Amino acid sequence: MSENSLLDVQIVPATAGDYDGVMSISGGIYNGADYLPCRYHEWLRDPQRRMFVAKSEGKVVGFDSYLLVDGGVTAVVQGLRVAPWMRGRGIAGVIQQFCFDALHYEHPEVSKVRLTRGEDPPAAMMSKYRLMHSKAIISVVIPNDQLEATIKLLKQRVESEDGTCPVHSMSPEEVLSWFENSTSDELFPKGILVQDWLPLSTHRSNLQLLQQRGVLWCYSNTSKPHTHKSLHASQKPTSLSLPHNSTPTSPFIPGGFLSLSTPPISVPLGDGMHRYDIDLFGTDPVAAKSHILHQVTEALRVLPTGGSVICFLSAEETLRAELTRFCQGIAPFFVVREQLVLEMDI
């Protein structure tokens, strides 16, 4: 697209009235497992987020947003998309630059921009950003009529392992104390925690953000698995509050395993189809399998009647082969193989 033709493109703050226009350019994104239809209006209400649309001849042709994190010193860029008929013409670069200009004007204290991408990002992007970390992505789809059989299969595979790794559901006080008192480098390389493709630091301010997302936190002390009790089937996920003084009620120790998830969200792939992301932190394969079983079981408890689920697993690359075998027999759902966390100073 020429510079003159780009003059016809206007970039303005997104509104509720732009929803249909943004959805009209989003068909097929993530092979139908797009999170934005479910989260668009939620994002609009977030005071820490700004959303923008690019319009040409009155029609939406692009979308992007940023979210302030890490106590306001970092912005995460999310949701970039361009209308299929406008791709390759420079719209993505224009709307991203508009985002950065707005960010610099409104929040000059922001010093870093962070984002997540799938494999093989453009060379131009890699010349600007540094790679913070990468993780393997394994994704499967579980139709409603196979939910019970899938849980049974995964349970059999977990029980066939040598040794056990009970999964502990963390209370709000335990989450806070764990972040304040533990050494997290083993679980979060370079201090980055990615939850549902949102890359955060372990800064305390981000815990409130995760509370709002309804995150279920689960932990295993992999070196002393017998010290924990498994989560009872009737126990519900807890929300995170931030008391000033708290102490953990369970003996979390270095070298453990952590998993995070948010409730399944509806996606446009088909009626009753939901997306569920499980982020795994640690390198112990026995613990990883136990956490997947636990998290999937909990997700199905809140899945609407008749619902099916696409499950995205994010794990260290060293676990890819083991977890791929663990998921054998469950239909794969390919979108990307890798999750990259990129960061740029501004």
Write the layout of secondary structure elements.
Elements: H1 3-6, E1 9-13, H2 19-24, H3 36-44, E2 49-56, E3 59-69, E4 74-82, H4 91-106, E5 112-117, H5 123-126, E6 130-142, H6 147-159, E7 168-169, H7 172-181, E8 192-195, E9 198-201, H8 205-212, E10 216-220, E11 257-261, E12 265-266, E13 273-281, H9 285-302, E14 308-315, H10 320-326, E15 338-345
Domain N-acetyltransferase: 9-137
GO molecular function: acyltransferase activity, transferring groups other than amino-acyl groups
Organism: Xenopus tropicalis (Western clawed frog)
Q: Roughly what is the average pLDDT, rounded to an integer?
A: 88
Write down the secondary-structure element order.
Answer: HEHHEEEHEHEHEHEEHEEEEHEHE
Tally the helices: what do you get?
Answer: 10
Strand content: 25-35%
What does the overall shape look like?
globular
Radius of gyration: 21 Å
Helix content: 25-40%
Going by helix content, strand content and strand pairing, the class is alpha+beta
Oligomer type: single chain
- How many domain units? 2
How many angstroms does the end-to-end distance come to?
Answer: 27 Å
Low-confidence stretches: 224-250
Q: Please provide the count of β strands.
A: 15
Largest sheet data: 13 strands, mixed
Organism: Xenopus tropicalis (Western clawed frog)
Protein name: LOC100127817 protein
Domain N-acetyltransferase: 9-137
GO molecular function, one term: acyltransferase activity, transferring groups other than amino-acyl groups
